[in-house]
Amino acid sequence: MDFVQSFRLAAPEVLFSLSGLILLLASAWTRSDRGARVITWLTIAVLVIGGAMIAPALANGAAGPDTLAFSALFTASAFAAFAKLLIIAAAAASLVIAPAYFQRLGAYRNEYPVLVLFAVLGMCLMVSSTNLLSLYIGLELNSLAAYVLAAFLRNDDRSAEAGLKYFVLGSLASGILLFGISLTYGFAGTIGYDGIAAALTGKISTGAVFGLVFVFAGLAFKISAVPFHMWTPDVYEGSPTPVTTFFASAPKVAALALTVIVAIEAFGNQIAAWQPIVVFAALASIVIGALGAIGQTNLKRLLAYSSINNVGFLLIGLAAATPQGVAGMLVYLAIYTAMTIGGFVAVLMLKDADGNPVESLADIAGLSRHRKVLAACIAMIMFSLAGIPPLFGFWGKFVVFQAAVEAGHIWLAAIGIAASVIGAFYYLKVVKVMYFDEPAMKAVGHSDWMHQALLGLCAVAISPLGYLLTKPLGALAATAAGALFIP
Amino acid sequence: MADFPILSVMMLVPLLAAVACLLVEAKAARQIALVATLIDLALGILLWVNYDIGGAQWQFQENVPLFAGFSWALGIDGIALMLIMLSVFLMPICILASAAIEKRVGEYMAAFLLMETLMIGVFAAQDLFLFYIMFEAGLIPMYLIIGIWGGADRIYASYKFFLYTLIGSVLMLIAMLWMVNEAGTTDIPTLMEYNFAPEVQTWLWLAFFASFAVKMPMWPVHTWLPDAHVQAPTAGSVILAGVLLKMGGYGFIRFSLPMFPEASAQFAWLVFALSMVAVVYTSLVALVQNDMKKLIAYSSVAHMAIVTIGLFAFNPQGLEGAMVVMLSHGLVSGALFLCVGVIYDRLHTREIDRYGGLSINMPYYALFFMLFTMASIGLPGTSGFVGEFLSLAGIYQVSSWVALVCTTGIILGAAYMLYLYRRVAFGEQKNADAAAMPDLNRREWFLMAPIAAVVLWMGVYPESFLAPMRADIAVLDARIARAKPASDAQLTAGKPKPATATEHAAHGEAH
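^ inputs. structure came back:
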């Protein structure tokens, strides 16, 4: 075992953990707002450097035994690299928008960027795991940081409630997952994905099926797929908006990538066993996510249901269980990240004249009259989330449905796409409120230039110009998915 | 000319103008929009002049593999050429007709210009997915046009329009994905010659039908149309009736028929049945309307049913007739909506009873209105006659019953249109405010006169419009010939009697 080689492969993670510790120490000596800003930007710099170290693995299509480190507990494959880059981008975005939001409330602390950094480290371990143990360590590292982040506004009841709910339900999910892991270990006799795949072939015992079901149930909690989605609206609504932006993007990417890894690598020989679970979760998420959103009056809750709805579409790519399906999922994840960050940043930018956040749907009535550009961006994001061409959100749905059709799941695709029309209803409602209704003149406050820049970036990415990215994005996703399907 | 990407330019001009309109003041936006649409009209004329009738089937082709999975492939045949001409011809008129729009002019013009880009894109797309993107994208500007600038009940109408057409289209996407997977290409001309297995065609045809039937619209999924038409602003109605409905017919002629000939024949009875119901039922509904726009909207459904029977007659007359009805209906119903718009701008009501005797105080208006009424009925000499006659002649070769039922549509059409005209233009001047309305102003002359000229041109010399399409319709007819349904006419040649016997008989009768 070449130790140097292992550290070289895990260099970005090593960088993140060392920087996290150093920044944590540094933050003990700086309590000023300015110090918090400096630490935020240092964290972003660390993330960018880490991203630059990860990128070559994706470009080279790293795969196979050469990417394994630490006695095959960790892999730096192209698939992991793709997911990590998305995670890092999402985390950096949620760091960029945070200071302006928290400082107005006088609640910005040095711990925020450090916690995000540790969460990113956890997520990187998750998507690099080749082993149920490294999976669990990564997941918990991410979750523990996330629980604290949810409750970051200590004086706000909603934030504290969100943190507690997230913690209780997250622990329950971890328990379920751990139970599944122990059953799987019991029946496979190993915790390595390769070993599990080799042990669980052909017809497997009921106990092993139970293990598989519990593992998937635990993961479904983490990706907030129906029927394990109930925590999502409450946590998304209660958490401070920059934290919600983070929750809706980075951990979602990590958990979905992890689900793919577990499904394809560990249970790759049991596709028939998990496919019905994924199909059910996909269709149920699409339908319940869409129906649940219709009655919402709070924008953050609405976006939470929208994320449940989107997870359904993402799972259709997994249900196809082909490299094309996984590649489609990755493309969708990239587009989804841009859409969801854009959506929450737009919510962040809605403020009344005193700078208080405006989150209710009724309060943004007639927004298109006095905040033209912001309203246009929100409208674009809504149409994109609904998957209406020519916006780029359509492409994400397109590639997963294409994969499903190519894999022969025509009925899954037909039902899924027909259910997407239900979702279109509430996305349209937001556009209707902003464009057709008489102005409520609530959201008139000005927004931070950093927020404007980020929203603009997301809006350009999901505009029809995004289609120019389809070739490189598709090629990278195919490389990444290819790394996962090496026998 | 050969290398000039004229179709892309035609799409780019309104797109750039749309962006410009968002950035400028109302007055400038109107001018930009008018200039951009006129440039497109000029480019369209250039396109028609350079179109080589009898030349290659696909002309002005462009293909840039810009995207993963599909490419920026454009190209037109005669059918697409005519529909593009219709679009670019109606657009400047729509912009001029929007003088009554006061609020958010820049956004309004931008939405219309975006529509123009997408309409040209739909007709010019040679890639299946590019077509789908253009086809679906039109929902967004139209949703905004109805919802922001529409009438009192605009929000309900905008939702209905959007969701109805969306649910129709998404199933088509799945069918398209399957076809591309099966045939291994997204190129429309190639797919038009690809033979899918007949049992698969059934499903694919139904998926496409779900989309095009809603867009067309066919009974019973037509109910979005009256709402959308009534609530949309005048120019919105013109574009809806003039061009958007043609996307359904274009879809049938470009996709359903050539790609799935067997399934088309298999389901011809369904199309006939729905069309027969539509012709009779919606004509009767039109007869009892009090709202002028609603009446014209229902008449659109009836006319579109004539299009569908012509398309599924599986013979050149029917296909040519369907195309001419589409072009003619685009002009005539667009013009009728403009006629309604002219008096709506003056009195702000669409209720028929609030008018009366307009031929006294608005003689020129009454004249134009009569011309378009007659064209809608299908009076010989107007465009309506040519299309309806050809369509019905086509269907008569297939089914006398369908022809019989659908011909009653012409009679009913005459009934409701003449009844409308009598109530609006003739009779007593019973409403003082209606009697005080001034006649057409110069702007309104510019709206009416060009359409009137083209309606008469198409009625008197339809060859100008049929010639570019003839070769393409012949190709299509040859393609679907193998599935052609048998005619219901039981022609049995009688036994000729010997000549002498006849003579005898004649002799005998004389006595």
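The first strand of chain A starts at residue 68 and ends at 69. Chain A has one domain: 3-482.
thumbs up if we can close this ticket
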